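User: Can you recover a sequence for this backbone? Please restate the input before giving your answer.

Assistant: Of course. Working from this structure:
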């Protein structure tokens, strides 16, 4: 005989909510699995009425979208949750944010009112600090990279080493001086000497091209090798404007419907 599942059947979801969160400071070194554990703990502490999957091992219904790699900070990470009772997005945001550890910050919550959210995450905008690299040297390397039809890089993946083109996914690449990119002036905190700031817009592809892949391409193709570890921050991800290379806010469509 088939084993019957333990406990009552899960309650159906009545609302879906889309959350934007940030990884800041030391929490950029947290893995995606670490974040999943922290989020589920915060949802329990905030007493959010989560919907659960069916089966013998029910899990909270949470959908993650295109998480930043370990070691990268981000201002634009997204996920979606399903709940069994209607929740006020602003109250939920405050309650869950308070329950999260410092450095994992819940920035915004909106009700999911449109389909195809994952498909709207077409590209990411990145800021990459290159300590010890003169901006002019970075500009020359970026110009050589952009002029190439393709630049092959290697990355260790689950199934071994994979070779792929890092150039085709880069929509835009620009270099700024450290002083020019900091509103308060000066180089990024803890960095002395020259510091080039690389701004990238990278199209989401399979396999995903990450900022460290672009840096590997700059190293192999243009001999740009930062003497210190780069610091990467995702500033935005969302719909890509192919004409100007900008990245729009993926939650705009849900806000527009909500305010209609």
């Amino acid at each position: 005989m088939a084993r019957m599942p333990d406990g009552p059947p899960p309650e159906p979801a009545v609302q879906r909510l889309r959350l934007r969160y940030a990884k800041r400071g030391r929490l950029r070194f947290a893995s995606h699995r670490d974040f999943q554990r922290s989020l589920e703990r915060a949802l329990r502490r905030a007493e959010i009425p989560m919907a659960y999957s069916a089966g013998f091992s029910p899990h909270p219904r949470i959908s993650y979208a295109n998480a930043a790699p370990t070691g990268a900070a981000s201002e634009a990470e997204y996920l979606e949750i399903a709940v069994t009772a209607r929740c006020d997005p602003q109250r939920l945001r405050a309650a869950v944010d308070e329950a999260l550890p410092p450095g994992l910050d819940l920035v915004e919550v909106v009700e999911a009112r449109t389909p195809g959210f994952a498909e709207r995450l077409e590209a990411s905008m990145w800021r990459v600090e290159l300590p010890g690299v003169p901006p002019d040297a970075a500009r020359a390397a970026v110009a050589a990279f952009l002029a190439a039809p393709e630049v092959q890089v290697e990355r260790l993946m689950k199934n071994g080493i994979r070779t792929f083109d890092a150039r085709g996914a880069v929509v835009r690449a620009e270099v700024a001086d450290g002083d020019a990119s900091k509103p308060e002036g000066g180089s990024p905190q803890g960095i002395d000497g020259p510091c080039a700031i690389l701004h990238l817009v990278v199209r989401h592809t399979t396999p995903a091209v990450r900022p460290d892949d672009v840096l590997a391409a700059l190293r192999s193709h243009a001999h740009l090798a930062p003497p210190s570890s780069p610091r990467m921050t995702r500033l935005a991800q969302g719909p890509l404007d192919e004409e100007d290379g900008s990245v729009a806010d993926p939650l705009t469509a849900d806000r527009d419907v909500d305010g209609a």
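That completes the design. The helical segments are 32-45, 89-99, 117-120, 135-147, 178-181, 211-222, 252-259.
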